[in-house]
Amino acid sequence: MALVRKQLRHLVQARSGDKGNTVNIAVFAPSAEVYAVLLREVTAERVKGHFQSMVNGEVKRYVLPGLHAMNFVCKEALGGGGSATLRMDNLGKCYAANLMRLEIEIDDTILVSAKS
Amino acid sequence: MRTIRIGAGQGFYGDSIIPAIETARNGNVDYLCFDSLAELTLAILQKDRQRDPARGYASDISSTMRELLPLVKAKGLKLITNAGGMNPLGALRETERVAHELGGLQGLKIAVVTGDDVLPKLTSFTAEGVSLAHMEDGRDFAAVQNRISFANAYLGAEPIVEALRQGADIVITGRVSDSALFLAPLIHEFGWHVEQDWELLAQGVLMGHLMECSGQVSGGNFSGDWQSVESLENIGFPIAEVREDGEFVMTKAEGTGGLVSVATVKEQLLYEIHDPSSYMTPDVVLDLTNVQLQDIGPNRVSVTGASGAARPETFKVVMGYADGWLGQAIWGYSWPDAVAKAKEADRIIRKQIEALGLHYEEIRTDYMGLNSLHGSVLAQPPAEELNEVYLRIAVRTNNRDAAAKLGRLVPPLMLSGPPAMGAFLGVMKPRELLGMWSCLVPREIIERSIRVTVTEVV
């Protein structure tokens, strides 16, 4: 057993969408073990830090343990919102993909149950 | 126990009609519900109505009705759509026109719901003491009052239920909450109580939420094992089999492509949701935190466990206001040093903007292929060896002419800028930007104006 660094892309599913100037990113772990690691590693603060150049408002995390899911709600994240922004990803659909770059520390024995 | 089969016909204005036809023909559905309105759609339709007062509805309603009205008649299914957009009565007239053109549809009942358009009433709202302050940041409405171009309330399922009660085969609405389109048939068929059966309504709204984005729950935009999803070119839109007790199964028509699995359903479950324990709709406040999903067969997922709390005493109203102009230009540079060339071009343009005294509130540069979707988050991929990079410069300004001037700075770079510039896409016309204003208005004030009218094809 050893801690290894892994990008979220190898561990989870995620989808993002917009509402006004807010983006939500839902993240789903494939198992309870991976979910426990996500709860520890992928905090609202880390997500806010990851997107510091893109999200001007607060980031809030909601959890749904039954689905091994967490939902990040990022305020002031679209430069004004879909029809008012200069950004190319004006509907925030690429936010989830972007978060997949985040690296977390995970026990290598848990990886067996993960996505790939 | 009785079961109603509901199909999703569309996820936005411009979506493919083919899966809806497939569902109508082979999906054995009782209802087919079309969500034509994304948050931005009313802004587009409002521009149409300004140009021509007869327009302002989702214009693909013509082709939709042409394809589906004969199936409505032959199969006895019902259509519900919010394609009325900014002009539900115009959409009704267009549907009647198509029905006459097709012929043989006498007796078909078409209902129209109005009352969501509250633009003419904003002053009276203020007079009644409704603040209209922005619901997210509390901004004062006075800041945008003179620039409002449309204002619509998200109505709930009740007027659609009323239309069905009056025997409508087709229901056309303007802005209603997306999930209301799908919930209404359940209330009508099962006799659920709109101010009481919060658990049942919660399951119904959850079903609607899963269905409203069409292919996004049946294998589209899927971040999981997307390579293994088969035949997206022939994707089947979702069908929900809903029991009288609210439990439902998500599936799709036999023989279609795509995938309905726990993995695809859960991605849609939280799509555009904020607090999962309190998703506000006009019909119920939905709590998703105990939802359970189960694969019960190929392309069959059972959904249980939504719970609900009493609906809010307010309706959400969304308005659009003029928010300046976007000017933009896009062009490319070739290897070697494509990124360095693009950065130099950006520097030149910004210097010229300054020298010309053009005042932009915001100037944005994107290097397409490098950071235009992901911004400057984390380390950039190695930029040096990119074969090409496209540079996009966009500006925001209150002055249309100033927006247009940006594009004129670009063509000279072909001869007088960094080497190997290609693919100049022309000077793009300035586009008007629209701000969105969301606020809450007491339910009873909105409800006074809601009307349901049923007409018969003669």
From TrEMBL, chain A:
Top-down, what is the taxonomic lineage of the species of origin? Bacteria, Bacillati, Bacillota, Bacilli, Bacillales
Which ranges carry the AtuA-like ferredoxin-fold domain? 7-104
The name of this protein is AtuA-like ferredoxin-fold domain-containing protein
Species this chain originates from: Paenibacillus albus
> One Pfam family from the UniProt entry?
AtuA_ferredoxin
Q: Which domain of life is it from?
A: Bacteria
Query: InterPro entries recorded for this chain?
Result: AtuA-like_ferredoxin_dom
Automatic annotation (TrEMBL), chain B:
Family matches, as Pfam families: AtuA
Q: By its UniProt entry, which InterPro entries does this protein fall under? A: AtuA_N (IPR010839)
Q: Which residues form the Acyclic terpene utilisation N-terminal domain?
A: 4-450
Name of the protein in question: DUF1446 domain-containing protein
Say which species the protein is native to: Paenibacillus albus
